[in-house]
Amino acid sequence: MQYLADQLGIDGLWAANARFGNHWVREPLYRQDSGQRMRQLLLELEAAQSGRPFREITIEAPHLDHIMPQDWSDAAKRHWPDPSYDESMAMDDIVRARNTAVDSIGNLALLEPQLTAKLRNAGFEERRAIYGQSRYLATRALAEHDHWNEQSIRARAAAWLPLANQLWPGPEAALDFSA
Questions:
Q1: Which of 46-55, 131-140, 170-179 has the lowest mean pLDDT?
Q2: DSSP secondary structure code for residue 82 in this structure
Q3: What Cα–Cα distance (Å) separates residue 33 from each residue in 5, 9, 86, 100, 122?
């Protein structure tokens, strides 16, 4: 927790800041920050949700998994449907929206190394079964989803937002934008 308390927040925003919520749910935080920092955020969320001691969770050295894969090779495309967007959107906008969702916090999961190896190019149905075997509460919860898409990613991130507000309220001075 001290590591996060010493930071200036994501892009200088703290969870209590109204702009943080939009950033938390919609921005590609993985791309903007190191994977190590995203792992740290997920570990903190896991400790708070599960009630397990932070020390116990970090000793397991979990991998950081992208639920919807970053790789859009032909193998991955077989398992993941094309995004459903308004027909008026340009293809570049559709691709940009999916790439943003893929690197957002709602699409990241902690996973044991031995389970990570089984996921290469797997579709969500296969991933669900593997996620259900995880020791991590937030990862196991993925097994309850029927499908996984951009809306699912945003909903998962939004569900974590109240907990993020509790864990990282930030200094009160961060809320004063009048200067």
A1: 170-179
A2: P
A3: 16, 11, 30, 13, 26
Q: What is the pTM of this model?
A: 0.79
Contact present, 149 and 69 (Cβ < 8 Å): no
Q: What are the distances in angstroms from CA 51 to CA 25, 48, 60, 147?
A: 24, 6, 16, 28
Q: Enumerate residues 6+ apart whose C-beta is below 8 A from 14.
A: 20, 168, 169, 170, 171, 174, 175
- DSSP-assigned letters across all residues of 100-120: HHHTSGGGEEEE-HHHHTT-T
- The rounded distance, in Å, linking the Cα atoms of 81 and 2 is 41
- 47: Cβ–Cβ under 8 A, 6 or more apart, which residues? 53, 54, 57
Cβ distance 39 to 64 under 8 Å?
yes
Distance CA 93, CA 50 (A): 37
The owner of tokens 């690197």 is 103
pLDDT higher at 18 or 1: 18
Please give the structure tokens belonging to residue 103: 């690197």
How many other CB atoms are there within 10 angstroms of residue 138's CB atom?
A: 19
